[in-house]
Write a structure and sequence with these properties.
Layout: H1 9-27, H2 38-59, H3 65-94, H4 97-111, H5 115-122, H6 138-158, H7 163-187, H8 189-194, H9 200-215, H10 222-242, H11 255-267, H12 273-278, H13 281-288, H14 290-307, H15 314-340, H16 347-370, H17 380-390, H18 395-402, E1 416-421, H19 423-434, E2 442-447, H20 458-461, H21 468-472, H22 478-486, E3 489-493, H23 504-512, E4 518-521, H24 531-537, H25 543-546, H26 549-571, E5 575-577, H27 579-583, E6 593-594, E7 597-598, H28 608-626
């Protein structure tokens, strides 16, 4: 903690309470549905410890930014560089060029303390599954590093004003940050989750705890301490068990684990039951290695899921969680501890090591990006395969962008078609262009994320308290309503889910009240396929090779959804296009490839070949319908 600052074993125990839920949450265990709040606990602890160190040194007139950043470099960089180096080998061996290129971007971002900004900017349609990103978890380190840059400077500039003014300014920042977080949770959830302005208030909870304990003692009443520490502990446990990915976060909900952490820091003192529990040697031991455990767990889980195509059993996931703790102990013992020893590792070496490591990972990151994820080192045939099938780039939306709510030309004789939906509607747009159907009909399109209400159910239509983004991408868009009225037919395609079926009938009825001519597209799913498997077996693949247990579960679920969609459409006299069966020539299931070409790159979004395949089938369907 620093010279002159009393060590508190229970704070290390609190770190264990933070890191274990995060690890088990990322492993996917349902009983830790709110385990992500462990990061918020870490933020409070970090705010408390850093503030305690800085204000103690400022009181003694011996605070130095150089010393401060030296301590941060000793604490953060050695283990981080070790994990990044280990990730390099597995990334090169197992990731596809597009995935490797994204990994290169993350190396650059981590090296420049901006990975939270990168993952915020990437959180869109083309973002690969977050659970498959080896360095995704470094976003929280970036938030803390940005705080480490700004907060000491703030204290240096305001210290002469006195603690009272500093506290007043911090309270103002706290209120602004918390307010922005609660607002952002509903309006810009991705930015809200990743960025410092809406996370800063969590660090400030720890700052306030540090300021209070600097100038006041812990509560003296053992009964009060027992009650407050138990309350704080219960608030954290409650959040871990009850919160889940649907909880708006961070928002006012985040006050539960953060205030709980603050209460523990203030009241879990000697003599309390919670302090005794948190100070147990095994728990403190996990707390001591918590930073390294946090660093190791995500790469282990991500690379395992990449290698095994997501087919990871609970027993394997639990073993990987344990492995992250074992690796954490090794890196703590042989990397973290030695670098913290100032007599063994000089300041000059620490800064040289930091500069060298940052430069190295920047170089590697830019090299990976420049080589397109190592694509140019594959054979020409395999380059073609990767670029066409596993690196879709902007293919899915490029045509859609050109016809977003394009005004129909009423002077020609073409039928006007409006395509509405999420990324699956973008697949339809690509199919239209691949088959030159756009030469026969005039098309306009509009993208509505399913979460924003592509299903025009009454509940959505009556609720105008949508996020700003959803307001612009919803039924309330006046331009969309005009296009719906003037279109000769409306095509609707989306990633329909089981829960959506409850609202399908009223949704279609609402659309029919505007335009009675509707073509509803069913769901499609062909199973995932790994690039490695494809390259090794592309001439002898069978369904059994490409359909994992998870794929089969997804297929049967989507097959049942299609049956229900077809029944609802028929009851309302709505045309239904059974995408899956039409591509599969009447079957419910067919391979994800024809004649060596892959239909979808992720199971349900088309490659160029897949779009062309659907386009030809759709063109024939429309021709028969016109006849």
């Amino acid at each position: 903690m620093g010279v002159g600052i009393k060590y508190r074993a229970e704070v290390d125990g609190l770190r264990a309470l933070a890191v274990l839920p995060v690890i088990f949450f990322h492993a996917g265990f349902d009983w830790f549905s709110g385990g992500f709040i462990g990061v918020d606990v870490f933020f409070v602890i970090s705010g408390y410890l850093i503030t305690t160190i800085i204000i103690s040194e400022m009181d003694d007139n011996n605070f130095s930014l150089i010393h401060f950043y030296e301590r941060r470099a000793r604490r953060i960089l050695p283990a981080l560089f070790l994990v990044m180096t280990a990730c390099l080998f597995f990334a090169w061996a197992w990731l596809t060029p597009s995935e490797l290129k994204a990994f290169g971007h993350s190396l650059i971002a981590v090296s420049t303390f901006s990975s939270n900004i990168l993952f915020w900017l990437e959180s869109g349609y083309f973002d690969s599954a977050t659970e498959l990103k080896p360095l995704l978890h470094t976003w929280s380190l970036a938030v803390e590093e940005q705080y480490y840059i700004l907060f000491p400077i703030f204290l240096l500039l305001t210290w002469q004003l006195g603690i009272r003014w500093i506290v007043m300014l911090l309270v103002m920042l706290f209120v602004i940050s918390l307010g922005a977080a609660h607002w952002g949770a509903y309006t810009s959830p991705s930015a809200n989750f990743y960025l410092l302005p809406t996370r800063g208030w969590e660090l400030l909870v720890g700052v306030f705890a540090a300021l209070y304990l600097k100038y006041n003692a812990h509560p003296r009443s053992i009964g009060l301490n027992q009650a407050l520490s138990f309350l704080g502990f219960s608030m954290i446990v409650y959040a871990i068990i009850v919160f889940d990915e649907t909880t708006p976060f961070p928002s006012l909900y985040a006050l539960v684990p953060t205030i709980g952490t603050g209460l523990l820091i203030l009241s879990a003192v000697s003599g309390t039951i919670i302090q005794t529990i948190l100070s147990l040697k095994p728990i403190v031991g996990i707390g001591l290695i918590s930073y390294s455990a946090y660093l190791w767990h995500q790469p282990l889980l991500a690379f395992a899921k990449v290698r095994l195509l997501g087919e990871t059993s609970d027993s394997l996931l639990f073993a990987l969680c344990i492995a992250s703790l074992l690796l954490a102990w090794i890196s703590w013992q042989y990397v973290e501890k030695p670098f913290r020893n100032r007599s063994a590792v000089s300041r000059k070496f620490v800064f040289s090591f930091a500069l060298g490591g940052i430069s190295f990972f920047l170089f590697v990151g830019f090299w990976i990006d420049n080589s397109k994820g190592g694509l140019k080192y594959y054979s020409l045939e395999n380059q073609k395969i990767f670029s066409r099938f596993f690196d879709p780039g902007e293919y899915v939306v490029k045509r859609h962008q050109s016809i977003i709510l394009k005004t129909f030309n009423k002077t020609n004789s073409k039928k006007n078609i409006l395509i509405i939906g999420d990324s699956h509607s973008e697949d339809i747009v690509n199919a239209v262009f691949e088959a030159n159907i756009n030469n026969i009909y005039d098309f306009s399109s509009f993208y509505i994320p399913l979460a924003c209400g592509v299903l025009f159910r009454n509940e959505v239509l009556q609720n105008k308290n949508l996020t700003n983004d959803c307001q612009n991408l919803s039924f309330y868009n006046d331009d969309l309503q005009r296009q719906m009225l003037t279109a000769d037919e409306i095509w609707i395609a989306s990633s329909w889910q089981k829960d959506d079926l409850n609202y399908m009938k009223e949704s279609l009825q609402n659309i029919k009240s505007i335009n009675n001519n509707i073509l509803l597209f069913g769901r499609k799913y062909f199973g995932t396929i790994s690039p490695q498997l494809y390259l090794q077996n592309k001439h002898k693949l069978s369904n059994a090779d490409i359909l994992s247990n998870k794929d089969l579960e997804n297929f049967f679920s989507i097959s049942n959804i299609n049956k229900s969609l077809h029944g609802i459409a028929r009851s309302l006299d709505v045309n239904f296009f059974h995408t899956q069966q039409i591509i599969c020539d009447g079957k419910d299931l067919c391979p994800n490839y024809f004649n060596g070409d892959i239909i979808t790159y992720d199971g349900d979004h088309f490659t160029p070949f897949g779009a062309a395949t659907l386009g030809a089938k759709l063109k024939n369907y429309l021709s028969l319908r016109e006849d």
